[in-house]
Amino acid sequence: MSEHQTILVAGSANLDFVVRAAHVPAAGETVLGRDVRTFAGGKGANQAVAGARAGGVPVRMLLALGEDAAAGVIEQSLSAAGVQMDILREPEIATGSAFVCLTDDAQNAITVAPGANACLAPQHLPSLDGVSHLLLQLETPIETVTAYAGAARAAGVRVVLNAAPARALPPALLDLVDVLIVNEGELAAITGCSGDVGQALARLHVPCVVVTLGARGCVMRNGGQFLLQPGFNISAVDSTAAGDTFCGALVAAFHQGLSLEAALRRASAAAALTCTRLGAQDSVPGRDEVDRFLHEREREAGDAEALAFYCRLNPV
């Protein structure tokens, strides 16, 4: 067995309340929605499920939960995906929740109430023995995220940060990150540069940066090398958790030692499948589904030149 037996996700877990509507309401506007459903969610938990289910690798998760019905829903979802849990229990604080408005064109607007997620502190990080990668997000306190990254760096564990939700990041945290995963808005928040992916990437000194670009695909800068993965052609139903699925599947591919090109393509396929069904963790595909999708789409190369032009990079 490999010395590094698992990946560890440390982060948020929420119960998502999802309402379908024609469009996201503007300030002061009331929109008449349709059905309301609840799903297990939270960026950290979604990514843990994706690593285990879509990536097919052993995953542990550090999370904080209340003692309420929402906690039970989340635990059941993580357990069903095969995720091992290190739970900080907060009996006086509610489990985190998110309120999602999902539009008819598969877009969403999300408001998060952190609840117990805000209680994760530096001393709660479990042993990193046997861990290859630590995957972090920003729905828990930034001081805690920085402390976890520092502990992982000291232990020789690769640090992967999904810098979401968007916010400026302290240089001390960025200096500890091996792989940074962001979308365009998050990239702009970190670098202060919007509308030019190539220029924004040039401002970052993180060794490896991946920028997800929605239906267009994604781009990776690894050192001075750029890799482009155009998006797959799908009929999207719900984009919730697509980015999280990408993150979890990508880190799982890293854990398995896949090439960077194969890792990007596999993560992109998993994210595409997630968009074809409703919900957060409920929408994450299994490893066999990802394998089948990739086999069916092996001739679908996409337009890398158009993607490079959009990112203002030289054609690859």
Automatic annotation (TrEMBL):
Reaction(s) catalysed (UniProt annotation): D-ribose + ATP = D-ribose 5-phosphate + ADP + H(+)
Query: Which cofactor does the UniProt annotation name?
Result: Mg(2+)
Could you tell me which residue ranges the Carbohydrate kinase PfkB domain spans? 6-285
Could you tell me the keywords of this UniProt record? ATP-binding, Carbohydrate metabolism, Cytoplasm, Kinase, Magnesium, Metal-binding, Nucleotide-binding, Potassium, Transferase
EC number(s)?
Answer: 2.7.1.15
- The record lists substrate as bound by 14-16, 42-46, 139, 244
Activity regulation, in the record's words, is:
Activated by a monovalent cation that binds near, but not in, the active site. The most likely occupant of the site in vivo is potassium. Ion binding induces a conformational change that may alter substrate affinity.
Quaternary structure annotation from Swiss-Prot or TrEMBL: Homodimer.
Its function, per the record, reads:
Catalyzes the phosphorylation of ribose at O-5 in a reaction requiring ATP and magnesium. The resulting D-ribose-5-phosphate can then be used either for sythesis of nucleotides, histidine, and tryptophan, or as a component of the pentose phosphate pathway.
Q: What is this protein called?
A: Ribokinase
Name the gene behind this protein. rbsK
